[in-house]
Design a protein that fits this description.
single chain, alpha+beta, six-stranded mixed beta sheet, 35% helix, 28% strand, elongated
Length: 159
């Protein structure tokens, strides 16, 4: 009987340790996602508040890339961590707790004209306004470098 109780007790201790590790991983993943979302918001604010020259150079502390005439290998979709470090912008969001800030990349992906019935095909319609599309991609880490989140949005800015 004592042996049976010991086995049940050891199994419950092991199960609670596993559940604690899983909840810690979920917390770290959530932090990584929040850090990445903060970088995404920073990138969208940069697009909204700046007249970006997307030639890869740094203007006013911000770098914007032009994806329209590049090969797919140079697109942010194929970036590795080193590319994010080299071409990215550091977010101003600080969560403390030794969590590194996110890195975000702003790319101009298209310019098109909005026309009749909001047809956004280039050159179609009555040329009501010009719209420039930007892709903002942010990468964030949690407390552990093993937890990483990448988020992306497309931001259309009328000119």
């Amino acid at each position: 009987m004592v042996l049976l109780i010991s086995i049940v007790a050891l199994a419950s201790i092991r199960g609670s340790g596993l559940q604690e590790a899983m909840s810690g991983n979920m917390r770290d993943r959530g932090l990584a996602f929040q850090v990445a979302e903060g970088g995404l918001a920073d990138g969208e604010n940069v697009v909204l508040n700046n007249d970006l020259l997307c030639d890869g150079a740094i203007y006013g502390g911000i770098r914007c890339l032009d994806d329209r005439d590049k090969t797919p290998a140079n697109s942010v979709q194929y970036f590795n961590t080193a590319n994010f470090t080299n071409f990215g912008n550091i977010s101003v969001l600080n969560l403390g707790q030794n969590i590194p800030p996110s890195t975000y990349v702003v790319e101009r992906i298209a310019s098109f004209k909005a026309g009749k019935d909001d047809d956004l095909t280039e050159g179609v319609g009555t040329n009501i306004s010009k719209v420039t599309a930007y892709r903002v991609t942010a990468i964030g880490n949690g407390i552990s470098s093993d937890s990483q989140a990448i988020v992306q949005s497309t931001y259309n800015l009328p000119h």
